[in-house]
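Recap from last week: sequence in, structure out.
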Amino acid sequence: MGPTRSPYLMRAGLVRNVRTVEHLTTFVVAGVATVLVTRLLLRLMGYPEIGGRGLHIAHVLPGGLLMLVSIVLLLAYVGPVVRPAAALVGGIGFGLFIDEVGKFVTADNDYFYRPAAAIMYIAFVLLVLGVQFLANRRPIDPREHLANAVDHAVEGVAGGLSRRRLAKASEQIRAAGPDIAGRAEVRALLAATPRDEVELAAPVDALWTALQRGFDRLALHPWAPRITVAVLAVQAVAAPLIAIWIRFDRGHLLSDVPVIGVAVGSALSAMFTVRGAVRLRRGDRVRAVRLFELAVLVSLLVTQVFQFAGTQFAAVGGIALDLILLGLLGAEQDRLQRQAQARASRPAPPPGVGGDARPSPSTG
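Predicted structure tokens:
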């Protein structure tokens, strides 16, 4: 078993949710989509002003209101049911809020401040990295798995549990292990909760399930590795071309910063892509997937940041492509891990069976 969390953090009640990354991803995707949709709608409508007689209602205000709604939902209700909805509502609110960052950092309240796109992107990236650090710095403690099972039981005690949610709670009990204190009591509590198949509509959960199934099917496609290498190679070539366009289009010294950033990010991504392709040809699929994942992460965290700084929202297509590749590689990584676990749990054949058979010594 890996290192456990600090006993002080556990005693202080700082128990992690096993779906933290999933909820944060919902928050970030909702926020990014809100920024893009808001900018598109404002451009199509000619940037109208809501208000009149000297008043202007900026969309940062409904953004703050939606974030307030999400906080109230989390404070007013217990159990796991409300969290996906709160993540979605909060993400939309945060997107409306941060879309006006140009007004907050400029003396003349410039909504069209050029570095605003890079500032927004960096804010979302730091948010993702922070939660990834929080979730992955230490493996989920067995006590945290059990606490997540109790969290499901909260819903069951009040209104019953569906088969799907009971299965999720039981999965957390299994992950906690047989030696954790309170395991039998939590299992008995879940068994005593009534069964109720009526669930609050969960479109966010349904969407994530559909995406996961889609990526699982894509990962099994025989052309998936070749397409991944091809897309990464095209990105590694296209990004420097965009950087050159930035340099010639802007034509001043400040343009050199995004150009250098894009060039460095593209070079690193290309290096990881080539190394991954070599590993794939040698049959080391696990290492190849990891190297491809590093290439995509460098593109997301380095190349796209500087592309946003130079081209504002023209880098959206590259980000969408990177996210698709990251989902595909994540599904392939999960599949390879399941295969490795299945091989590890398979009993070894007895001596003399299959490949372990040894020829008996000659008696002649």
